[in-house]
Amino acid sequence: MYSARTKMVEKNTVAYGSQLGHYNFYYPDREIEFTFASDAIVKIMNWSEQGGLVAVLVQSSFLKSKENISSKTHIVWVNPSVIRSY
Questions:
Q1: Is it the case that residue 12 has pLDDT exceeding 60?
Q2: Domain range for residue 41?
Q3: What is the pLDDT of residue 66?
Q4: Selection from 60, 50, 43 nearest residue 21 by Cα
Q5: CB 28 within 8 A of CB 5
Q6: What is the DSSP letter of 51?
Q7: Is residue 21 part of a domain?
Q8: How big is the CA angle at 57 (ends 49 and 86), to the nearest 5 degrees?
Q9: Is 22 within a domain?
Q10: Beta 73-78 vs 54-59: how paired, if at all?
Q11: Is residue 2 part of a domain?
Q12: Cα 34 to the chain's mean position, in Å?
């Protein structure tokens, strides 16, 4: 199996923001909620799974939130079962 396949998250998937924690590691923050505005290609971060969620890097334009997103890309946390490989 070829492991470098395109990873994608579908529209309307709920994701969570990050908070800085012990040893400057990032952890999911379930108080900060995002929704994917459309299907998006993501890059899975090489971070350990936290609370059943994995970190992914996504273009900020694919996210909807009450939070202000000022960067072009953003790291959010999603359930690994919602990530599709193509």
A1: yes
A2: 7-85
A3: 84
A4: 50
A5: no
A6: T
A7: yes
A8: 90
A9: yes
A10: antiparallel
A11: no
A12: 9
